[in-house]
Amino acid sequence: xxxxxxxxxxxxxxxxxxRFVRGQVKEVxxxxxxxxxxxxxxxxxxxxxxxxxxxxxxxxxxxxxxxERALYQLxxxxxxxxxxxDQIPFxxxxxxxxxxxxxxxxxxxxxxxxxxQNAVVIDIGTAATVDFILGTGEFLGxxxxxxxxxxxxxxxxxARQLHRFQWQRLEGFVGHSPxxxxxxxxxxxxxxxxxxxxxxxERELGLRFPVRLVTGGLADLIHLPGxxxxxxxxxxxxxxxxxxxxxxxxxxx
Length: 253
Prior knowledge:
The chain is α/β, with parallel strands linked by helices. Helices cover 35% and strands 24% of the residues.
């Protein structure tokens, strides 16, 4: 097991960093993707001075070089990027596997190395994704919906009498103001859609997925019965990917 790992998830909205020591996450920090630069990362993680290996995934290609430079300076090694290629030891059921988001690929590695059972992974962020993954890591496919903030922004932009608001985490299904009605519609509606997709996905695949995980920066807005919250799942998957890669190939120089 690698001793001290820095994992970084570069998303559309947020960049999240995790410090792992002997397989356990010890601390997580984040920053806005808009603020990302090599210097900003080095400032944010200035006291993380015991790191040995770096691994990351990115859905924002033009910021990769800034992130790579920071990880190199923090670890003294060229970081390993999770991308689709020959080193992926399981099948991805996409017509073009390169199009699968690398955060979802990281989730497959977590299921493969840590869960080891068929799992449904729901990730709530800019988008809400539903992924069906076998215990071997094989990615069977899934669905993508707008995340809560994305849907709210679209409504506020397109409907003149509807405006942005702060989430109140309301109970119930009947709103008594435009803001309450929007929140209930967006959150309860998303919950219903996600649960329906899981139910129908299992039926279509003819398989059971006993492990059900929910993660993502906006996961706390959503209530999904039977799902286990696992914050920072992508970081755990990146750590698992680095460990499997170094076992199969070599430690990055």
